[in-house]
Amino acid sequence: MKLIVNGASLDIDQARTIEELLVELKLAGKGAIVELNQEILDKSQHAETRLANGDKVEIVHFVGGG
């Protein structure tokens, strides 16, 4: 399946939901905010929101530092 993730074309083999995509991108549990096709998703929707070919996903995650 081909997705646009943060503006870049990405071929995804395993992910079928937002939650699975975050796992595949090693962003699970990192406090990511996800926008799917210009709609911000609540974290509670990640496991049930299915991806489709051509979806546009924007992911923002926080990085701590000092």
Automatic annotation (TrEMBL):
SUPFAM superfamilies: MoaD/ThiS (SSF54285)
InterPro entries: Beta-grasp_dom_sf, Mopterin_synth/thiamin_S_b, Thi_S, ThiS/MoaD-like
Top-level division of the source organism's lineage: Bacteria
Record-annotated membrane-spanning stretches: none
Pfam families documented for this protein: ThiS
Gene3D superfamilies in the record: 3.10.20.30
Protein name per its UniProtKB record: Sulfur carrier protein ThiS
